[in-house]
Amino acid sequence: MKIEFIDGVLLKKALSGAARLLEQNKEEVNSLNVFPVPDGDTGTNMLLTVKSALKQGLNVDENDTYKIALATSQGSLMGARGNSGVILSQLFRGFANGLKSKNNIDIITLANALKQASDTAYKAVMKPTEGTILTVAKECGEFAISISKEEKDIENFIKRVIEHGNKALDKTPEMLPVLKQAGVVDAGGKGLMYLFLGAYNAIIGLEEYFEEEEAVEIKKETVHQEREHIDTDDIKFGYCTEFMINTNYDDIEKFRKELSIQGDSLLVVGGDGIIKVHIHTNNPGVVIEKALTLGELKDIKIDNMRIQHREILLKDELADLKKESEKVKINKKYSFVAVSIGEGIDEVFRGLNVDAIVPGGQTMNPSTEDILKAIEDTTGESVIILPNNGNVILAAEQTKVISTRNIFVLPTKNIPQGIAALISFNEEASIEENMINMSEAINTVLTGQVTYAVRDTEYKDNKINKDDIIGLTDGEIEVTGKDINDVSLKLIEKMVDHDIGIITIFYGNDVDENKVNELSNLLEERFKDIDVEVVFGGQPLYYYIFSIE
């Protein structure tokens, strides 16, 4: 039976099918990471982003394809994790924009939406790299446009686009030498093609798709611990109020200002049909009444935070509320938000006056929403975000689009860079001066990392076996071996020059004190004029992180 258009019901099935197939193949996408280190999280980041998108898309009661796509776009933006997740959120955004004023999707509309998806994603990346998910998306969009007038059946149209996309994916190693040397195609591009194939299978009825309850499940760790009694008088605004508005009103900034006098922790995002509101207030009725003037409300949720505190609920949300109730609301000139992993590294950041820490590292990239929530916990006139991971920078940048706070993202790619930036910070200087000084500081520190290979591979003509110890610096594998201290010493010997004054060792969960002290002694003996410091980092997966200055 020929399919001439996609309606809202079929679009939801397609989104669900896409998510299911990616989940089934997540580990394969993760395994395509160029480096054989334990941070191949492209598949995980894309899946979590898609699930966040799907949750919002399935919550749209109507069958209007544009409203479904718009909600999906907004969900993907809030849930975007890692570079691949942020790029995927921009693909969703462009796709939604391509469906404006369209209740159903015909071939011409679908082709234009795919092309607009690619164009939007390219614009979101400062320096687009060919041979990545961007290339695959572009090839799909351009090919879709080229065949859109000759094809009359959506099933065959999508099938041809997928075939062309897979050919483009197969060519990515020719565009990026690192892919060719590793013998893999681009992970993000592979994930995108699984999404397309899953959507196609659902549309033609070949693939089961997520039920709503299954689709929205995103696992979170629950905090289970005893909490002392908290004085509810410390809670200035007692009702946590959340809801969605179906509306044609698009002056988000004006509505945000109207609500701002009603409480704090305000978040108003969306537009083009759907607005999401979160606020802590003493007058939820007033907030609801103001919202009703704009349109129809759904997903209304009002929690009495004072009662929650008295009952000491074991929920992640209560942990956030507890922090807020205990926090002294002091107006500050600057606040810092840092992404960190490892209790020891967390303590280092707190000692350097970081206001909010977002858990996240190589295998657990935080979402844009995670970073936004941390920003809400700060009171500074200017908020400086330290991503401390190259795969988190784009998600951090997205907060500037969503939040009304004065946000600055310092593109730190690792923990030592974040620490160096904080040390150079001057409370008395202007934000412009501090951003310049901190940017210079992150370029003065060298970072080394020691971990293990998660698979057999070949890198720069060197054969690496699974479980080999790997020493990295500047994104390059410099040393391999069987002993972590032997690899560490060789790595540092390659990194140290006559200008180095101090080496700091952050040791992880899997290293005992005897082992790190042995390394410290080796370094002091080898580099007699350089100070060596040892700090417990507590980070997983990476035995050592070295800061060399």
Describe this structure in words.
This protein is of the alpha/beta class. It folds into 4 domains: 208 residues, Serine Threonine Protein Phosphatase 5, Tetratricopeptide repeat (Alpha Horseshoe), CATH 1.25.40; 86 residues, Alpha-Beta Plaits, CATH 3.30.70; 114 residues, 3-Layer(aba) Sandwich (Rossmann fold); 103 residues, Hypothetical Protein Tm841, Chain: A,domain 3. The strands form 4 sheets. The protein has a 6-stranded mixed beta sheet, with helices on both faces. α1 packs across α11, α8 packs antiparallel against α11 and α20 packs across α21. The chain is globular, with a radius of gyration of 25 Å. The protein starts with 7 loop residues before the first helix and ends with a strand. About 5% of the residues have low confidence.
Task: State the main characteristics.
DegV_domain_contain, alpha/beta, single chain, 18% strand, glycerone kinase activity, 549 residues, Rossmann fold, DAK2 domain-containing protein, DhaL_dom, Alpha-Beta Plaits, 6-stranded mixed β-sheet, 23 helices, Serine Threonine Protein Phosphatase 5, Tetratricopeptide repeat
Task: Describe the protein's topology.
Layout: H1 8-24, H2 26-31, H3 42-58, H4 65-79, H5 82-97, H6 107-124, H7 133-147, H8 154-170, H9 172-175, H10 177-182, H11 187-204, H12 212-215, E1 239-246, H13 252-260, E2 263-271, E3 274-281, H14 284-292, E4 296-304, H15 305-311, H16 316-326, E5 332-340, H17 343-351, E6 356-359, H18 368-376, E7 380-386, H19 393-402, E8 406-409, H20 415-424, H21 431-442, E9 446-452, E10 457-459, E11 462-464, E12 469-473, E13 476-481, H22 484-495, E14 502-507, H23 513-526, E15 531-536, E16 544-548
Parallel strand pairs: 5-6, 5-7, 7-8, 14-15
Antiparallel strand pairs: 1-3, 1-4, 2-3, 9-12, 9-16, 10-11, 12-13, 14-16
Helix pairs in contact: 1-3, 1-4, 1-11, 3-4, 3-5, 4-5, 5-6, 5-19, 6-7, 7-8, 7-11, 8-11, 18-19, 20-21
